[in-house]
Design a protein that fits this description.
This protein has 418 residues and is α+β, with helices and mostly antiparallel strands. It has 6 helices and 24 strands. The protein folds into 4 domains: 59 residues; 96 residues, conserved putative lor/sdh protein from methanococcus maripaludis s2 fold; 87 residues, Elongation Factor Tu (Ef-tu), domain 3 (Beta Barrel); 138 residues, RNA polymerase II/Efflux pump adaptor protein, barrel-sandwich hybrid domain (OB fold (Dihydrolipoamide Acetyltransferase, E2P), Beta Barrel). Helix content is 41%, strand content 32%. The strands form 6 sheets. A 6-stranded antiparallel beta barrel has the order 4-13-16-15-14-17. Strands 1-21-20-19 form a 4-stranded antiparallel beta sheet, with helices on one face. Strands 3-18-23-22 form a 4-stranded antiparallel beta sheet, with no helix packed on it. The chain is elongated and about 115 Å long. About 16% of the residues have low confidence. Keywords: Signal, Transport. Belongs to the membrane fusion protein (MFP) (TC 8.A.1) family.
Amino acid sequence: MTFKNNRLVLVAAILIALAAGFGLARVTGDDAGEAAHAEHAEDKDAADAHAGEEGHNEESEGADAHADEGGHGEEEGKKGAEEEGTVALTKEQIEASGITVVAVSRGGGGETRLSGRVEPSIGARAAVASSIAGRVERVIVAPGTQVRAGQPLAVVVSGEAATMRANADAARAEAEAARLVFRRDQSLVSQGVVARQELEASRARSLAADALARAAVAQASAAGTPDASGRITITSPVAGVVGAVQVTPGSVVSAGALVANVSDPKQTELVFSAPPALAAQVAPGARIEVSGPAGNFTAVVIGAAADVREQGGMAVIRARAESGTLPPAGSPVAGVVVSAGQGRALSVPADAVQTVEGRSVVFVVTDTGFRAMPVLAGRRAGGRIEVLNGLTGSERIAGSNAFLLKAELAKGEAEHGH
């Protein structure tokens, strides 16, 4: 009984042990599964998080790259905007292209049209007159004759001239006689024969005779230096061409009567009639745009007389051509002069103002070349244009050949558009 009971106890213990082992294994398996499942979930979350982080980084990098590209584009756009309207040229290129750099002038002016004609210069014309009354014995020249300075024009015979010549000869003879007396008295005084006061008196008479002789000779010379017969040869004081001849052989002329006109056709000038107020405003050096039979040219004012009563109250403006030869003397001309203004208006050469995209611009000098500066243009007078707005007056701008900068600017914009 005891043995049997022990066996039962043993079997029961084994069953209990087996049951306990099975439960433990189940419990252990469940815990391990849950742990594995939790570990797998953690790994999955970590992977998802890593993937999300990489995606976020990629998105951030993409955004940064896009921002960099946008910023670079803005910089290029800004640079392009800064370069718009500029023409880069070196100093050597500017000189080679013939573009002149000028300053902006101050002071506006009024434009006045003048009428005038070509006349011989003052020192290149002569109105030759007879210096004494007499009879014209011979006329040597005719209108159009080329003469040299000192060449004879006509011969006049005058009794008055003969008397002048005789008086001059007599005065010279008296002066010579008085001089001989003075020398003789000098010798006698040294010998003690003549008193010193006699020597002083003879010296005074000699000086007076010399003075009278000089006066008589000068009078005869002013009359044309007549010969003993009273013939006077009238000569030309300048070289040139004989104009009008006012005497004929056998005619009688009075003192001061005109014999002939002589002028040098190579020495001419422009003479314009102008109101006295305008002549007071036009200074020597001012330019006049002239139109004549031979075309248009520029002249420079050399003188202006504001009070010329002989011209019927009109003033006279004299000018000479800057280059070339003027039309023949007597040719009519017309001119346009710009009088100096009293205001502070700015003006630039007409060539400096160019039209770009419908706007008036001037090209201002920069460190690298030129920049197109929009301006408001005003009046145009005498080859210059008033600038009402857009410049301060301190700029230096492109003058002549500024159209080359306009063409270069248009070329650069066309290449940028493509």
